[in-house]
Amino acid sequence: MDTVTRMQAFIGVVEAGGFSAAARRMAKSKALVSKYVKDLEDELGVRLLNRTTRQLSLTEVGQAYYREATEILQRIEDLADSVRDTHREPRGLLRVSAPRSFGDAELGEAIMEFLVAQPEIMVDLRLDDRFVDLVEEGFDVAIRITELADSSLIARRLADFRNVLTAAPAVLAQHGTPKTPQDLAGLPCIVDTNYRGRHNWAFRVDGERAIVTVSPRVEVNSPEVARSAALAGLGFARLPWFTAREEIASGRLVPLLEAYETNAAGIYAVYPHRRHLSGKVRVFVDFLVEWFGRCRDVRGVKA
């Protein structure tokens, strides 16, 4: 019997909260699991668990050993997965979270192209404008448009992301064309509450980040509804480029203050912190990087 088997039994007992529960999970007898743990303690020459008739607890050295043993076994599992992935086609269910408006548009197109290229992978795409908890809700990867700051996740930047300040020609005729971000103060604005700043719009003035607090005529939690409000002449709206580009091309909306945009946000693929990235996630993220590189207009960049 090897040390790894003993470590697995020990970790199983700790995580199950007892020998009987661990034995059921491992499909082994309670006596055998107990023997594995005792043999591990004998091998180490220390007591890892305090045992009573009603309670099981880790000793101080047991707590330290549990942390290290869990890490070691995860590395062994990651190594095995990595080797397997190099010898088989990516397959299985890929659960993806993305913003609704982005998923309805460009991302949906990219995913359909990905599925054609990867026939062994199935995708469960959930569109929601909130930030989901990837681990708690069981997602493999999330696509986010943000200034990423969550260090508990691994992120790969897929592309730059462009916002554009717009207004209908009738609004400009009534209120004038703003020349600087400060000119927006006091003007009717359409606020998309999905933006973290909400009423506080960030621009870049003389190389520095500048915040302008705007007065909302309309507040919505959808870029599509914000675009509709802008088209209805209800005020100035800050929209994702991919939402407004057709209306800008047709002249129904006018881009404004483009030289002042920060363009600090990006389009990211984020996934839980793991040493080994599963084959299906890896090929999906690699595909998106390549796809966004081809489809430059998604970002508002002229090819």
- The rounded Rg comes to 27 Å
Q: Largest sheet, if any?
A: 5 strands, mixed
Beta-strand proportion: 25-35%
Structural class: alpha/beta
The CA-CA distance between the termini, in Å, is 62 Å
User: What's the total number of strands?
Assistant: 14
Strand order of the largest sheet: 4-3-5-14-6
Specify the CATH architecture of the largest domain: 3-Layer(aba) Sandwich
Report the mean per-residue pLDDT as an integer: 85
CATH C-level class of the largest domain: Alpha Beta
Which residues sit in consecutive blocks of at least 5 with pLDDT less than 50?
Answer: 299-303
CATH superfamily of the largest domain: Periplasmic binding protein-like II
So what's the overall shape?
elongated
Tally of individual domains: 3
List its salient traits.
25% strand, five-stranded mixed beta sheet, alpha/beta, Arc Repressor Mutant, subunit A, elongated, D-Maltodextrin-Binding Protein, domain 2, 303 residues
Summarize the structure.
The protein is an alpha/beta fold and 303 residues long.
List the helices and strands and how they pair.
Layout (H helix, E strand, L loop, with lengths): L2 H14 L2 H8 L3 H15 L4 E3 L4 E3 L1 H26 L6 E7 L1 H18 L3 E7 L6 H4 L3 E6 L6 E8 L2 E5 L1 H7 L12 E5 L7 E6 L2 E6 L1 E6 L2 H9 L4 E5 H10 L3 E3 L9 E7 L6 H16 L9
Parallel strand pairs: 3-4, 3-5, 8-11, 8-12
Antiparallel strand pairs: 1-2, 5-14, 6-14, 7-12, 7-13, 9-10
Helix pairs in contact: 1-2, 1-3, 1-4, 2-3
